[in-house]
């Protein structure tokens, strides 16, 4: 049984990371285990920005977006020398295991660190893209989807008033989950994702036909990996002759108070991670499958690509 562990958040922030860190910390303290917080992701590990945490350090954070520990992307950690320095800084403090909350890149770095040093590491999937292999859910994805949905509700009002086409660009460089889930939930007529090819000329012809039948407005949601709204908008306007506007949500999708689902799921995952690392388990990621917390091999999680559910793609076309 480990007696001293550390927890950190890394990569892009996502709502619910604070809930996960809170659960890891309080679960470990409840087991009589010392807990250290690493600030600023892997940067903090290399720069020794590490502090011992008590229960009060994670008070009043479960409702906050972002991550109170801070996060960053660290190029130095991608080198063997950087990882060994980080490992030394942990060992010097008596830290025996590490919980990493982050997305694919962060978990990949954790996997490499574990392989090179033997340090026990447990990961939690913290990314709004919901693209970690082996888990149907990632921390922050629900809140981000609802943020997009709220924007769609507002855009629908102005689109209807002016009989416009609105092209809304959302995050998702390699995964279309956010665009697909928010698009279906918001009643978008067209949803473009990087997992599926599309013909913009064919789409424009379809849009023109719909307007000729009396359609008042059209909402298109496009994942950033499938195209840029700033480029697609002018093309659509030219080919259809219909007033077309674009909107890019950007980093607003990462912020905001986490939803009840993200708070609860992050807390459940945090508890499992703390108990696992304390018991000496390593190289696993905790996620969800059919509503239940499951363990996933860390190596498999970072070396496999999660596929967008084809049933969602089918549904988006049926309901368009």
What does this structure look like?
This protein is 43% helix and 18% strand. The chain contains 11 helices and 11 strands. It has helices at 17-30, 42-46, 80-92, 104-117, 141-162, 177-185, 200-212, 229-240, 260-278, 298-303, 310-319; strands spanning 4-9, 34-38, 50-53, 97-102, 121-125, 165-170, 190-192, 218-223, 244-248, 284-289, 292-297. The strands form 2 sheets. It has a 7-stranded mixed β-sheet, with helices on both faces. Helix 1 (17-30) packs parallel to helix 9 (260-278), helix 6 runs parallel beside helix 11 (310-319) and helix 7 crosses helix 8 (229-240). It is elongated, with a radius of gyration of 22 Å. The N and C termini lie far apart (54 Å).
Please give the alpha-carbon distance between the first and last residues: 54 Å
Q: Based on Cα principal axes, name the global outline.
A: elongated
User: Main beta sheet: strand number and arrangement?
Assistant: 7 strands, mixed
Number of strands: 11
Strand order, largest beta sheet: 3-2-1-4-5-10-11
Broad structural category = alpha/beta
